[in-house]
Amino acid sequence: MTASFVTSCTECLIRHYLILTSEDIEQWQEDPEGWLTEAEADQWEFELRPCAEKTFTTLLYHYRDLLLPLLLHFVDQAVVLDRQDPQAFFFKEAVYSAIGLGVKTLYGHFDFERFVMTYLVKDLDRPAGPPPMIKRRIAWTLGKWASESISEECRKVAFDVLLQWMAAPPSEEKEQEQQGQQRVVQLTAAHALTQAVDNWEFDIQLFLPYLGSTLTHLLHLLSQAEAPETVLSLVTDVKAILMRTGTEILPFASDIIQMLLPCWQPTREPLLLSSLIDTFRHVVAEAHVYLLEDALDLWWTLLQTAPMNSPEFMSLYYPPALALLDYDTENLRKVLKVIESYLLLDPSSTLAPPYQPILFEKLASKVKDTTRGPVAHYVSHTLDLVLQSAPLSVYGQALVDSDVLTNILELLMKEDKSQAMATYMNVFARLAFLDANFVMRILQTKTQPQQPQDEVISRVLDRWLDNVSFLLMEKKKKKGKKKLMVFFFFFYKLDYLDAQKKRVACVGLTHLLLSSSSSHSSGDDVVKAVVMNKLPNIMAVWMDAGFDR
């Protein structure tokens, strides 16, 4: 192609095809979010202006030295155009668009900082200021160039301008029209500011004075967003800033969590849900020590409303969720509720072999470290849900290896009758209900060599029966003190007050009885004799539970 043809073609593109049309302005006012989504979509194969933009950048890439004087000439023209002429703004917008489109090719050959300080700043300082279409294009251009290496002074100017436009209220006159125009400016400025921050070549300390205002404006825009594409874009912007600023977001983490929560709806597009989960993961990673309670509430809500599991969810399960079990018991209940939500959402993935030993070992440490009623209830409830979520063959060996059952048995032999111990024994009851032979093997293998097997098993069953009977008696006592115990019920909500759980214990004991009576192995004679000897006690417990309505 000749130089004359290239120059003429480029001038034609800028003057006639990069320029906005009256239809653009009308759609901008009627549906600002929809127009912006369409304008920023990469659809050059199907739309005229994106095709013209693609053609322009291709020509500039191959003929940069030839076209640079033409661009500079257009910049000079755009600055001195009559501000009273509406068409002058359309041309200026197209010229600024060309400068932004050519950033990769023009960088190092076009003095962008001089362009900002000489032209843009003066234009912005005028009393009336530029119209919305020029504001939007300036913001867009600043974002493109600020993603490259520019001076601190120029970057600060970009931060100031973009933050001002993110927060600028609409004019009181022509309110609906102005709101539509201003909406596009705000959203463009928000994304441009993110582009300016999401550059790892500049010192992030330069941006920190602007961090609070940036997050405030971003979250405000997020609360007003209507289109799913706009929500996704803003969530992506928030995530990019979180990743860039790290622990500096801690003072704002609570606000971020509260603003993300309403965005979570199961009917949202999978891409948006994935982005929300990833953003939440970054907040949790940075702020879990300071805002753990809020983070756990949001986490639980995400899981409860999720239509299905996903790799993003599982990246939160391990290590984050399981690692939280190492912390103190202040938020243990909420951590376990999160883990239980994983079990309900996708038990096969939650109980996959890599995670089984980690989960059971951490729960075993909780059993060993405390016998407090509420904690015992929380831990045993999670274990009970595990037992109901998948076949015992899936995790049985990991359960044995983890010492969960050993620790429960040790507590049973040491502790007096208590609600905590009876709650832990419900785990054994559920196991006996699923596979009584499995429980018998546990009792046999956990017997110390110097201890007679029949004595150990007899003692275990005695303590088990004592604790079940204890709970039955406790409920009978509490029936007479119901009004005094309202707070107790509300605070603990423990399953040992539920007759259904007591019957699980009775069914478990009965399965042990049936298992031992049906065994024909000579090695089980000791166990059979012990269990049969406890038949009257088991029947007595059954009678109590049966009449406990």
In short:
With 549 residues, the chain is mainly α. The chain has 30 helices and no strands.
Tell me the β content. Answer: under 5%
Average pLDDT, all residues: 81
Q: What is the number of helical segments per DSSP (H or I, 4+ residues)?
A: 30
Rg, rounded, reads 34 Å
- Helix-strand sequence: HHHHHHHHHHHHHHHHHHHHHHHHHHHHHH
Percent helix range:
over 70%
Number of strands: 0
Secondary-structure content class: mainly alpha
Give the overall shape.
Answer: rod-shaped
Largest sheet: none
Point out poorly predicted stretches. 479-497
* End-to-end Cα distance: 94 Å
Description of the molecule:
This protein starts with a helix and ends with a helix. 75% of the residues lie in helices and 0% in strands. The protein is built from 30 helices and no strands. The longest helix is centred in the C-terminal third of the chain and has 27 residues, at 453-479. Among the domains are: 1-170 and 177-202, no CATH class; 203-307. The protein is mostly helical and 549 residues long. It has helices spanning 3-17, 22-30, 32-40, 48-62, 64-80, 86-101, 103-106, 112-125, 132-146, 152-167, 175-197, 208-224, 228-245, 253-260, 270-287, 292-305, 311-323, 332-345, 347-350, 356-369, 373-389, 392-401, 404-414, 419-434, 436-445, 453-479, 486-492, 499-518, 525-533, 535-547. Mean pLDDT is 81; it is low at 479-497. It is rod-shaped.
